[in-house]
């Protein structure tokens, strides 16, 4: 039976191959993910959410599913157009969202967590037996063993723009996907960012839905 890791990896790569962005080298990105990173087996965090093998890919897919649903609901909207001569109002469907943008920012908003964690054995006392046991857990790699550029969001944006051509709004969405939970975003007044870039609002919301609803323990 195919493991959830392999199933998620297959789905993830299918989504990458469906992106039609010009000057995007899909083969280069997929090769990096498979051969130079632990993206498909890494956890999404140490303890907060999806802190298990394959959790990073699972969380990225959950964020994509959430964002895709939100985009269909909120970025495809109805504008009321008034005919001056007849004073009749007409509904005009306006579609603002680009499917490639949704895939890119959702699937890779946490790309900096690849090659970021490592497994180790921690001594834990068994509450039932009273004996000490070794339990396998995750921890952050030392600074010498991981790529450092800036904070998590800055590093994700930097890594991604070296792999995929990004629009300004896509990069801003990734930079501020933590919303008010991120120190830098708070200092820059996240409300101003969100007011100007709706894609950032939706990515942050999708990330929250994935983390606290879809991945709730």
Strand content: 5-15%
Spatial order of the strands forming the largest sheet: 1-2
Largest sheet descriptor: 2 strands, antiparallel
Output mean pLDDT.
87
SSE order in H/E notation? HHHEEHEEHHHHH
In percent, how helical is the residue content? 40-55%
Radius of gyration: 20 Å
**Broad shape:** globular
Distance N terminus to C terminus?
25 Å
Structural commentary:
Strands 1-2 form a two-stranded antiparallel ribbon. It contains 9 helices and 4 strands; from the N terminus they run αααββαββααααα. About 3% of the residues have low confidence. β1 and β2 form a beta hairpin. The chain is globular, with a radius of gyration of 20 Å. The chain has one domain. α3 packs across α9. With 217 residues, it is an alpha+beta fold.
Notable traits:
single chain; 217 residues; 15% strand; 9 helices; alpha+beta; two-stranded antiparallel sheet
Show the helix and strand layout.
Elements: H1 4-17, H2 26-35, H3 55-74, E1 76-82, E2 89-95, H4 99-108, E3 117-125, E4 132-140, H5 152-161, H6 168-175, H7 183-187, H8 190-196, H9 198-214
Antiparallel strand pairs: 1-2, 3-4
Helix pairs in contact: 3-4, 3-9, 4-6, 5-6, 6-9, 8-9
Q: In summary, what is this structure?
A:
The chain has helices at residues 4-17, 26-35, 55-74, 99-108, 152-161, 168-175, 183-187, 190-196, 198-214; strands at 76-82, 89-95, 117-125, 132-140. It is built from nine helices and four strands.
